[in-house]
Amino acid sequence: MPTDATLEVERALFATGAPVVIGIDEVGRGALAGVVAVGACAILPTCGEHPAGLRDSKLLSPTKRASLVPLAHDWALAITVGEAEPAEVDEMGIIGALGLAGRRALIALHAAGVDVAAAEVLVDGVHDWLSPALMSPPSIRTRAKADRDCASVAAASVIAKEHRDALMRADHARHPVYGWDGNKGYGSAAHLAAIAEHGPSPLHRHSWLRAPAGTGDARGASVAEV
């Protein structure tokens, strides 16, 4: 049975003198359409216990995930979401687009009064795609399964997922043939069939659709990622 995220890692960083910890997670990396979104959750040593039930967004029901959004915002110092558009994914590749979206999320945190430069930043995964996008990166630590284990990263995951899902539902109203209200832009069979029948929309990642099978992230995307 999945367990809730904890503050064990964040508290260890606070104990070494970090004034603020920022959890980072991305959503939409493997989608065929829509933005890639990066959530950033800043917490202080004084933020207290995180909301009960907080965990990786992929392990939550839509109802539970939505209920955690206001609780996470009340708990954290600030939470922001940065986006990179499909055209930016086409232009710079998914890793560059992730960095761009992460930079935008951190800029928004800075605008909200967070001391980003002094922060310890926790990035979900084993690859630091964020540092190359920043002129003067803060201290950045990658951690496998951080979205599962670290409350700040889990909160970033939840907020980014809810943010991107809302965008895809709105985009579905304008492009209903692709079924984005259900597949959220990922490569379901119905979505691929709609692309074959109607062609891609401006919100598709066109470079991925042109890539030979097996060469792009999108070809490995599954409905389970929605």
UniProtKB/TrEMBL annotation:
Alphabetized Pfam families for the sequence: RNase_HII
Cofactor(s) listed in the protein's UniProt record: Mn(2+); Mg(2+)
Binding site for a divalent metal cation: 25-26, 124
Gene3D superfamilies hit by this protein: Ribonuclease H-like superfamily/Ribonuclease H (3.30.420.10)
UniProt keyword annotations, A-Z: Cytoplasm, Endonuclease, Hydrolase, Manganese, Metal-binding, Nuclease
GO MF annotations, alphabetized: metal ion binding; RNA binding; RNA-DNA hybrid ribonuclease activity
GO terms of biological process kind: DNA replication, removal of RNA primer; mismatch repair
Compartment(s) of residence: Cytoplasm
Enzyme class label: hydrolase
Family (UniProt): Belongs to the RNase HII family.
UniProt function note: Endonuclease that specifically degrades the RNA of RNA-DNA hybrids.
Descriptive protein name: Ribonuclease
